[in-house]
Fold this protein.
Amino acid sequence: MSFQQGLSGLNASSKALDTIGNNIANSGTVGFKDSTTVFADVFAASLSGAGAAPIGLGATVATVAQQFTQGNISVTNNPLDLAINGSGFYELTNANGDILYSRNGQFQLDKSGYIVNAQGLRLMGYGADANGTITPPTTSLRLFDPASSSDAPPQATGTSVSATGIQANVNLDSREALPANAFDPTDTSPATDTYNKSTAVTIYDSLGNSHIYNLYFVKTATTNQWQVYATVSNPAGASVGVTALGLVDTLTFGADGTLPASYTPPTVTVSDTALGYAGGVNPLSFPLNFSGSTQYGASFTINSLVQDGFASGKLAGFNIGSDGVILGRYTNGQSKNLGQVVLASFRNPQGLQPLGNNVWMSTSMSGPVMEGTPGSSGQYGPIQSAALEDSNVDLTKELVDMITQQRAYQANAQTIKTQDSILQTLVNLR
């Protein structure tokens, strides 16, 4: 017997107690992953090889392995608190452009509109273009730009990607009588009817100013035929209050009360002068689509009346889906994708190098990083917004392990004491 075995046992138990103490200290740290001390025995080597009954030289700490098991998920009130329910790591970047990884989903917005953690590291993901289309590569996720006067610029009616314009679905009452007089939008006297029914929809110019586009339906002497006239009412401050736009469409229904398959929506134009801002806005040009409208023997009904323009708006709120897509809601009633959180995975997560502050760095032992969207496969768990992943430390287990290592420490100390007693006996031999 020598002191080496007992001393190595003391060192190993001491490091194990340090690991347990660190686990217990971080039992309340969001996203923390506990560690386990892995021991290995030590044998002396010789040129002739080991003996028939070799005696080891004690124990050593082979590694301190982190356990990437799932922690409990706790609900919060912050939509930027994110919890991964499964595998994966958040990708973060620092001021130097280094990529780090974390399971701590406590995020917030900085003054520049970026999503950051408590240390100011920016959350990475796929960005979105002006139309809300999400595309790679990864970049720092940003919800707004404080240097911009508007988070959502206006969109003139008819200028959307699909060029929807105005879509109207109405039922015109086939029992209506012909108007008594020629069409006159300013004459609303029942005694001198000039149109049968009317409706209106708000449209927007290139500056986001709202205008009221009025539609008037006039039944004609031709069987099952209706004429559609329009006017535009402009906001206060415009040079023109109301502009008559004349006949914009003629609807001829079949005997079954529906529009024929050959119906083609007209494209109508509204000049900048008619909008009341001559030279100040772009002229409007958009489809006026009555597809699906009917002429039945029932009361006049507006089934739907939509258009694709909107005013400018500021970001009013957002939510993050389980797939990591960030959907922004604006004061102009619009919503748009702002980006998508991306997760990273590794073949060997135990090979990641912990840097403190709940972040890791990839190494050659962890293998190359693989990126994916939340919930897309088993490698990338879905994300839960307004929730956090608790530490995976089991306090009961840690306290039991602490007692075990304490007894091991005492036993190793006893072997040193016994060796000391034996040496003392040898020294006292006469």
Observations:
- The chain is about 15% helix and 35% strand.
- The mean pLDDT is 91.
